[in-house]
Each structure stands twice: as structure tokens, then as C-alpha cells.
Amino acid sequence: MNAKTITILTSLAAVPFIMVLGNSMLIPVLPEMQKQLGITHFQTSLVISMFSIPAGLTIPFAGFFSDRLGRKKIIAPSLIIYGLGGLIAGIAALYLDKGYWLIITGRIIQGIGAAGTAPVTMALVGDIFISKERSKALGYIEAANGLGKVVSPILGSLVAIIAWFGTFFIFPVLTVPTAIAVWFLVNEPEMSRNKQSIMQYFNSIISLFKNKAAFLITSFITGLLSLLLLFGLLFFLSDYLEASLKLFGVKKGVALAVPVLVMSAVSLAAGSLIKKKVLLMKILIISGLSIITFSFGLLPFFQNPWINIVVMSVAGIGVGLILPCLNTLITSSSSSEQRGMITSLYGGIRFFGVAAGPPLFGILDGFGRYVLFWSGAGAALAVGILCIIALPAKVPEN
After folding, report:
1. What are phi and psi of 68, to 5 degrees?
2. 7-188+211-390 carries CATH number 1.10.10.60
3. Exposure pattern of 87-101 as b/e (b: 16+ CB <10 Å)?
4. I need a surface site. Which of 14, 112, 132, 287 has the fewest CB within 10 A?
5. Domain spans of the chain?
6. What is the pTM of this model?
7. How many CA within 13 A on the CB side of residue 150?
8. pLDDT, tens digit (0-9, with 9 covering 90-100), for 173-218
9. Is the dihedral of CA 372, 377, 378, 382 positive or negative?
10. Rounded to whole angstroms, how far apart are CA atoms 193 and 127?
11. How distant is the alpha carbon of residue 325 from its chain centre?
């Protein structure tokens, strides 16, 4: 890998890294936020959901315009909007005693900005890298995503030592230099700009879904479930660590990082391994869902908190096997003229998974650990069976 490739990958990998901070960095400070603002547990979960839901709704538009105008023209402004939303939320928390709804407004703006970041970056990686290099490059991007999840709870805990709302001010500090790096250091291929009429464009998207409906829908469902279970698990673990081990601050951030560190390492390894081996990707996806089913099925039986963290880390292995395979399959399933929309739709589904995880786990936790974890195990098992049936051994690459 030469210096130019490293520079491009580093600039692009910074985008999903920062995007992940949008939720993961706030998870350790949610209990303190709830206490300081005097809000309910459900209102606290909305701080996560009201970032992810607007992102999920806006992503298809970001994908459409990235196909028409170019990827960088969407990524760079989106990063600036993302940072601006964090600034609004931070100022609201700093200066207003009852600034909850303005914080939510800032989070919505952040979500709209996030829509044009990681999913469009995935499409740009697909444009720049071809053949066997694509899966490896996407493995790095997913690993950066995972690294963000590892670093973010620790970073959030460190910043919260000064002030819990300080986490919001981290976003503009990081997004501006990343936007500059993407704009000036990444050379975008001309082919990524769609020359079709709007009618031709949407007809080609519809045709793609007709031809690959089972594969695409199954892949989208698998991505949604993987992120839903991961972020639901982290949301549960944040409260669990305080209640069972009396872990707070940085110590809690480090403990929260363990399952995601495992996921990130596995994602990097899987991305380097799979290349263009579609059958291997299918096997790894099914194996990952099997591991999640097994680990979630066992969690209710363990009372020792440290064993629980270990078993949750095993679930991280499953997610780490799944995501780089899905990224490669979905990115390779469409031509460059359609790739922005397809990866953005996939990214939107992922955001909805992230949004649904915390409140869903919060609700299910009220019914006890057996209902909570066996529901996750059952969902993973059902999706695993669906993948066996619907994922082909070969996906035509464009």
C-alpha cells in the first residue's frame, strides 16, 4: 500500500470514525445527563434515537445527490452540518437549565448531517477501489467505524470528568479538519457522477431491486439487526456496569469499549480475508448470526458481571464477522451510477437499527433478562435462517 493510498484511506476512514462518535460517545454520560436534566429514562434514550432517525430518513436523499453531483460535494458539507448540530446541543446544555428540547434539536441537525457521511463514504470507497482491493478497503472503513465505537465511550468518559455536556463540543472540533482532508486529499473518480436522467436513474434503481430483491432485503435486515443488538447491548451495559460493578467515568468507558474492540479487530481481519469470495462472505455472515444467537441465549444464565462482559464480547465477534461482508456485498452489487443510493439505503437501515436498539432494550429490560436476551437470540436465529435461504453463493459484481 503506497503513501497516496494510505492518505486516501486515512481521510475516508476518519468519516465513519467521527460518525460513530455521534451516539457511542454519549452512551457513558446518559445516566448523568438524565440526572442533571431531570428527564425520564425514555427521554434519555431519545438523545440517541433523535440522531439516528433523522439520519435514516435523510440518507436516501444524500445517496441520490451523491450519485448526481459527486461524493465529496455531499460528504464535506454534511460533516460541517454534523459539527454545527453538536455545537447547538452543547450551547443549549451549557447555558440553559432546561435545554433538553434544544439539545434534541441539535441532535436532529447532527443526524441530518450524518446522513451524508459514512454511507456516501462507503460508495466513494467502492468507486476508488476495485476488485480484491475493495473488500480490504471496506474492511478498514468498518474497522475505523469499530475503532470509533471503542474510543468513543472512553473519550466520552474523559470529557465528562470536566462536564457531561463537553462531549457535544468535540464534534465541531473533529468534523471541520476531516471535511478539509476529504475535500483536498481524496481524488474522486469521474465515473461516480451519474449522467442518467432522473427517470432513467430511478428506473435503474427499481430494476436493480427487482433483480436482486431477496439478496438486498436480506442484507438490509441483517445489517439492521446487527446494529440494533449491538447498540441495545451497549445501552444495557452502560446502566448495568454502574448498578452491578459500581463502575463510573473512565473505568466504565473502558469496560464498554471491550465488546466493540473485539468487534473492530474481527472486522479488520474479516475485511482482509474475504476479498471477492462471496461464498465465504455468506458463511461468515451465517456464522456471525449463530455466534450472536449462542451468546444472547447464554447471557441470562450468568450473574457474574465480568462473565457477562466476556459473553457480550463474544457477541461482538459475531457482529464483526457480519458487517464487512455485508459492506462488500452491497457495495459490489451495483454500478457506480447507482452505488450512492444503494449504500445510502443500507446506511439508513443501519441507522434505524442504532436508533431502535436503546429504547427497545430499555422496554424489554422491564420484562426481565430472559425476555430481553432471548428475544435477541430468537431474532438472530430467524435472520440466520433467512440468510441461509436468501443469500446466494455468488452475487454478480458491477
Report:
1. -85, -40
2. no
3. bbbbbbbeeeeebbe
4. 132
5. 7-188+211-390
6. 0.73
7. 19
8. 999 999 999 999 998 887 545 566 677 777 777 877 777 888 888 9
9. positive
10. 10
11. 14
